[in-house]
Queue: 4 jobs
Job 1
Amino acid sequence: MQISIMMMRAMQLDGPGKPLRPVERPMPEPKPGELLIEVAACGVCRTDLHVADGEIPAHYPIIPGHEIVGRVVEIGSDVEGFALGDRVGVPWLGHSCGVCPYCRSGRENLCDEPEFTGCTRDGGYTTHAVADARYCFPIPTSFSDIAAAPLLCAGLIGWRALRLAGDAQRIGLYGFGAAAHIIAQVAHWQKREVYAFTKPGDVAGQAFARSLGCAWAGASDEMPPLPLDAAILFAPVGALVPAALKAVAKGGRVVCAGIHMSDIPAFPYADLWGERTICSVANLTREDGNSFFEIAERAKIETTTQPFGLEDANAALAAVRNGEVKGAAVIVPGL
């Protein structure tokens, strides 16, 4: 008797610097504590480029993608709170140990033995994915599958970065891509002034920023018309750190939101003096996710997206790398 094996389609990265290639794999089975999800959409994040380029250590071969939206089709043992057909989102932090000092103190984003979706465990450039149920979030019904996908990283990391900026009233966003276009809307809804910094000459990007409520938009080598209370750096360019320090007022904070950044060049102590601070964002906590989706719904966030078919994942990555996407690129297996 021949047993039929269910298969899934995916785009696989075999190693750093290699293009993704289409593969078929046996359908994975959820282990205890896991969900099997039929992927409806998966956002394309700049972090995926760092994985593809080998700038972030990954377990190759790997299926990239960590902004997953899909529906539960199978539930592993020891899972509570989910039912078949539930729509869920899966973020970058896909698993934490639960026992290290960071996990025990509510700082699971700093876990000593984490697993990352699309990096150390297979992600969402596929038709089906397995995820730790503890790191799956319900998606508000007000967002479509494609619109919700960028919220799972661009939105979540932007939200954590905004929270680390404190109660700053005047905020600068360096790099106006997927994350900035979401968090600019949140900050505007919170009655803050948002100043957008793009690549020099990116007139279209600056116009896009202003259309989302930014008070000012200019090039990253320009100074804002007024000193900033805080700056968030989404562009992975270390040279922007000294530039942002010069743009913030005394007591201001510069938040580096990327998981990878080029080296920060030397700068005079005088640019840091005046109780200015620099901090980084590392991953996210489940509390970040729960609070962000509540805010995103209340603020009526609208994501701007460009969909790509699963087999077009290489083109999607290239478009993100070249800054050709307005808002966020999203892989849609059903296209």
Job 2
Amino acid sequence: MSSVIHSAVVEAPPLARQKPARRGKPGSVVLAPYLLSLPLWLVLGIFLLIPILTIITVSFWDDQGTGFVPTFIFDNYRDSLGSWVTWKTYLSTLRFAVIVWVLTLSIGFTVAYYLSFHVRSTFWQMLLFQLCAIPFLTSNIIRMISWIPFLGRNGLLNSALMDMGLTDHPLEFLLYSPFAVILAFVHLYTLFMVVPIFNTMMRIDRALIEAARDGGAGPVSVLRHVVIPLSMPGIAIGTIFVVTLVMGDFVTVQMMSGGQSASVGLMLRNSISLLQYPEAAAQAVVLLLTVLMMVWAILRVVDIRKEL
């Protein structure tokens, strides 16, 4: 019996050794992420980095009236930052940005909160959200122009107020004024605040709200200690959208103020229309740095990586 077992063990073929899986060359593994991201870097380089570098280069050129001299001077920045008109224009633009941000945040947060927590059906949520977005499918210019017959001296609003006896003369501040500019900004950019806040609120775990209510928290406490802190990434994203758009806008300011209000974007456009390209490039660089510092400050307060 032992001889049979011994012969079976001797005659059994040895176990085949498993061959290690083939691995790619170390160089190809290292280069693979860079090769995959190469198209993105090409697009960013051609359409973003090269134009920005061109603007920065032109901002140091000298404008001699008859042409531009490629040189390296700081006169354009000195003339721009040394003028009180520039500082006054920046203060006016920042005032517009702050007021529009407060109004769009108030409206956007209210709309997003209602759609997220008071509309139970997903169908009605999407339907109401689409109704909010329908006006934004038209051109900004058309939506701005539509305010003129409504807010004008002989417009619908003034006519209605005088017919009701609330005023005996047309209200002059309704059109071609800072009020009209702010109204147009809020109308144009509120959706940019609604979308990210609504997206953030829809991700909030409803069990957290139920736990807060079971713990005795009222609606205000739930809103203050649960909803608002968890909605901060969406608020930050909406703030970046609204602030950057207002800082660079010039069409709205020109059309709705009738040339009576100034903005940084309008100052830039005026320099370009006068063919003062080096000065306009310097103003664009200063505006870009200002907006980047504002975005950096927002990102230091709120971590939007939770939303991305």
Job 3
Amino acid sequence: MKRKDFLRLSGLAGAASLLPWERLNAGSMQLSKQAGCVLIPTETAGPYPLDLSANTTFFRQDLRESKTGVQLNLKMKILGLENCGPMQNVRVNIWHCDKDGLYSGYNTGENAGQQGLTYLRGYQFTDANGEVEFITIFPGWYNARICHIHFQVYVSSSYAAISQLTFDVNDKNALYAAYPSLYTKGSDPVSLASDNIFSDGYVYQMATLTPNTTTGGYDSYLEVTVKGSGTLGIGNEEKETAKQLQLGQNFPNPYREQTTIPFSLQQSSDVSIRLWNLSGQQVALVKQGGLSAGDHNIVLNMQQLGIATGNYIYQIEVKNASGTYKQCKMMTALR
């Protein structure tokens, strides 16, 4: 199984991360937490979105590559509008410019010479808490746009929410002023009122920005509400795959060292379970051949598999007389 075969299906998967995050204080959390759930405003994907799902390079948490800038640990929590519950097993893409306002992958206008580059783009998957985390750098700004980060919440092949986030103007410009050798363009001259995206409102798109004494950078947090219902059970499924198998959420989840993968088969099949870390590397494989139609469980013990307890994407591959079918979800380690 090649990595691209797994990532091609990842629009239905779920994942999250175990990063050395410093806990955000309650006050900063509340800056972006609203009463109830309000659908995130839809914004343009911008001129430089690329298709992250089409390129396996972007399945990663650390987006920096060789780019310099102040480290930004970005956490996003995805909520379902119907019940305000956490949405697990959905893909979240982010992309943004570098400290000088340049986007990777393009060779037009201010981005001349950036074709073929992949910096500051990536995607991850929401965990049992509906959360994703990225390591990146704090973005700069470019002409006519205030500092911002693009994001897409890919719920299923029929629905994805596209929007942008930004930061408090004073906090952002204070960061630029504190690192003049990095952010040589100085303060961002664009106001929220004059920005062509945020001028009609930004309250649900304003992310927190708090210093992280461990990294020397900053932490940021935003809650995003999308269409759908938060769930701790089975996530979205494609119709053809659902005719052959139902992949359940591992239990317990979060887990300590051992967890069980439940699934249901519609006909006799050979089954493989693969575990992938959050950098897109396969770390374990469990095979069971000739399983009958019906409900099944596969127990995974991390010590026996020779891997550390952690957050992994688990993918089931089912082969039978009708073809090959795959589904994947996220298992979350107890913190």
Job 4
Amino acid sequence: MQHTRWFAMVAEILLAALVAVGLLASGSLLPVLGVFLSLLSPLPFVLLRLRHGFPALSLALALTALTLAGLSSGMQGVAFLLEFGLPAMILAEGLRRGSRPELLVTTVAVLLTLGGMGVLVLASEDWAHPLSAIGRHGEDILAQMEAFGAQLGVPGDGPGVLAGSPTFPAFLRLAFRVAFPALSFVGSLLTAGGYLVVLRALTRQWIAQLGGGTPEPFRWELPEVLVWAVIAAGALYLTGISRVQAVGLNLLIILVGLYFLQGLSIAAFLFQRFQLPRVLAALSVFLLLFHPVFPLLVAGVGLFDVWFGFRHLSFPKTPRQT
């Protein structure tokens, strides 16, 4: 029986490494879908840690890094460990220990952001100006967005937009450059939140195979003191000083991302509490994806939860309660 268990562990280590290499390769082979598939790379390692422990996770990460180094370069293996390996380790340990969702997701998002930026700096080898690689990456993303918008026929800045001219207005281009660090973090935050939702669902589905413990109900609650950070960020943005405004704008975007997840948690709770129809839930997801105002409304719900406590208001009260 012990021999069978060891054989299964070795087979799953090889499988996790193979799946991760395939997901990372899809980022280069498939233009858009591959980017999203490559973001799933940490999940096999987290599942491996929950099934077989930390040594199996370490061996799988080392094997994947060596494989990438052999197929491409040593830098590719280091980039994988920085960008996906370390977040996978923290996510696995947080799930095993039952860490609070807001703390775990934020920590993994920070690691994803720092790992991605570290990879850009290492790949550029421009040690005199390390942040220039991050700026160039932001410019590349903006150029890709403009090219995609031009294909969809998105109107440009003014009438008669010529081929090859900027698709987005000048103020949006400037705002994107200034807020690129915060936007990168928010993207990592949503990615880390997706990781947690998927892994909690898998853990609930296969309790015995993935650690033997049932995860507690998902509850995202930010500390009340964080409201003062929102006020401070807004005050910085209103100063009119360009550099101070940039700091305030980045802080506001980061905080909106955090409160957006809190608003989603409240919405999911209310949908379950009042047993609302699934059609309404599907419509809400559609609005989140395609309506620019709806995510801000959800973030507002998360922010005002500090004062209103929507989860508590939804419960029936006894006659002695007000």
